[in-house]
Amino acid sequence: MVLEEEIPKFAVWFGPALLWYVFAASLVAVCAAALAWLTQSVLYGPLAAGDRVYRGVLTGLADLAGMSPRRIWALARLAIQESLRRNVLVALALFLLIVLFAGWFLDPKSVNPGKLYLGFILGATNLLVCLVTLVLSVFSLPADIKAKAIQTVTTKPVRTGEIVLGRILGFSIVGAVLLAIMALIGWAFVVRSVSHGHAIAVEDVIELKDVGGTVTGFEGRTSLDRGHRHRVELDAAGNGWTDNVQGHRHAVRRSGNGYTLGAAEGMLEARRPLRGTLRFLDREGRPSTKGISVGSEWTYRQYIEGGSLAAAIWKFEGISDREYPNGLPLEMTVRVFRTYKGTIEKGIKGSVRVRNPASGLQSDPFYFTAREFTIDSLLIPRKLASTSTDGGTRQVDLFQDIVADGRVEVILQCLEPAQYYGIAQADFYLRAGDGSFALNYAKSCLGILYSMLLVTAMGVMFSTFLGGPLALFATLAVVLVGQFREFIQRLFESQVTGDSTIAPGGGPIESLYRIVTQESITVELVPSPAVQIMKTVDTFLLAPMQLLAGIFPSLSSLGTSDFVAGGFDIPFDLVAEHGMETLGYLLAFFIAGAFCLRAREVAS
After folding, report:
1. Domain span at 251
2. What distance separates the 2 farthest-apart alpha carbons in the chain?
3. Model-level pTM?
């Protein structure tokens, strides 16, 4: 999961977001009014068209101001009854069918089965809930208009805004109930799928003795369960931990003449990370703006060379002994690039040191072995050994000698020559705490609810002036464009700044040129007048695309399943920001739908 940028506080985010919302809403309103005026001008002339648009806006606003909650709820109940008549509960049967046979296709021996199961369940829930409410919302109103059933409603004292809002509310309630049931079923499926237990036979454990014959510890292995087993390292008392396999480990305790294992730790969690800023040293130990490229088209991660002075340095701030009394709990995800195969199962050895950013005093290295797709944990203790340049070693205190004004640096190096570590800024973090996984799962389902509300509101809005199939196509088109909102914004930023690492490949014309000439997107084009003209035209083409992408909703940005599957806590600030964004879009779609339905004059 990519979490490169810190999530802003809601109070900081709200002001600029509100300004952008007012600007975007004003721009859309002006464009809609201008389009209405042009249409009316063809029929009635410019002056009459202006008068009709002006009166239409005033009467529409008066219609919205006079809405009745009782009538809205009555129409919502009708929408719920209509949904039940259309056998919407079939979606639950389909979901149960998917869950029943999911075990046939999901591999419990995968690198991280918890992430696999969570991603599948949340993805299937999101797809089914949004699909059901989308079909209901786009076909309901056009079917009533075609059958003239809408006349029964409009002949009563019901306003167009109440019709639109009642349908949005009714279909949303249906979707919310479906979501709640699917979420509970999915929760039970995930917990049952990842739950497992190992046993340790006494004959599978051997003693470790020193030269004097004294027992210093034990090592062995667990039984095979869910397609995996663990290696065990115990102290002289018979207590310890298993190694980390499939994203989890178990605590081991001696119990009589045998051993007992605790529940899996690290699989269903909600970590709260404290992230730092990243910089690099090249193979000569000199400061560098970035690491080494190994030819990967995705440049998110940079690489450092093993067996050299190359290093990645993270700087953390806000560190205090009150928050970390036992030391710094460091967690890291390190990718490995091999220039020769070697023994893949053994991983690539590396080291971690902590350093005082002010005095330069650093600890002796802590050694670890990086394995692909695994989160490695390392506790930096309070008492550290530090070796000076003359070879002398002394003990230092982490917070008194290494941490300076709440700041500390963590240095990563790869120890094996001709091998490389791939890292990004978000790959190293301090574990600042843990949240509730159940609450985290609920917050992720809230993100699905936001997506469902937007799809429902869009479907109802488009159905006020389009037929069912066209409304479905229009809604899917808006959703599709919104899915690429972040990419289009990065692409525009790359064109303006000239930094191709933000979004390699260039704009539409440059991309077409690269396809025709089979030029890799990682290779810079040779500067020439033709290339400069091509990039300039791409910038002008991307400007309106960037504006439209900023207006359209992005369902992918509202989704937070990556947080849950990756084991990270979803900040409440992010949930609040997504909620306000959803509320803003709902208001815009509701008003647009009410005006469009009024302009259609269904009551005439």
Report:
1. 202-261
2. 106
3. 0.85
With respect to residue 209, please indicate whether it lies within any of the assigned structural domains: yes
Q: What is the pLDDT of residue 1?
A: 43
Please give the single-letter amino acid code of residue 386. Answer: S
Q: Could you give the CA distance from residue 475 to residue 460 in angstroms, rounded to a whole number?
A: 9
Question: Is position 3 within any domain?
Answer: no
172 pLDDT above the threshold of 90: yes
In whole angstroms, what is the distance from residue 448 CA to residue 133 CA? 12
Q: Is 117 helix (H, G, I), strand (E, B) or coil?
A: helix
Identity (one letter) of the amino acid at 534? Answer: M
Q: What whole-number distance in Å separates Cα of residue 72 and Cα of residue 159?
A: 9
- Could you tell me if 525 and 510 are in contact, meaning their C-beta atoms sit under 8 angstroms apart? yes
Judgement on whether residues 469 and 558 belong to the same structural domain of the protein: yes
- What's the pLDDT at 525? 78
Cβ proximity of 408 and 350 under 8 Å: no
Query: Above 70 in pLDDT, residue 560?
Result: yes
Out of 427, 460, 477, a domain closes at 427
Conformation bin of residue 569: beta by default, left when phi > 0, alpha when psi is -120 to 50:
beta
Is 219 found in the same domain as 325?
no
pLDDT of amino acid 603: 39
Residue 148 pLDDT level (bands cut at 50, 70, 90): low
Helix (H) or strand (E) holding 183: helix 160-194
DSSP letter at 106 equals S
Structure tokens at 583: 């509320």
Residues 6 or more apart whose Cβ sits within 8 Å of residue 1? 562, 563, 565, 566, 568
Position 164 in a domain = yes
Tally of CA atoms within 13 A in the half-sphere of 465 that contains its CB: 15
Q: Which among 261, 291, 310 is the end of a domain?
A: 261
In this structure, the answer to whether residues 185 and 106 fall within a common structural domain is: yes
CA 323 to chain CA centroid, nearest Å: 27
* Tokens matching residue 14: 């709200």
pLDDT in tens, 307-317: 889 999 999 99
* Interval 231-251: pLDDT, tens: 888 888 888 888 888 778 888
Q: Report the pLDDT averaged over residues 554-558.
A: 83
Q: Is 188 helix (H, G, I), strand (E, B) or coil?
A: helix
Report d(CA 2, CA 117) in Å as an integer. 19
- 604 pLDDT tier (thresholds 50, 70, 90): very low
Tell me, what CATH number does 311's domain have? 2.60.120
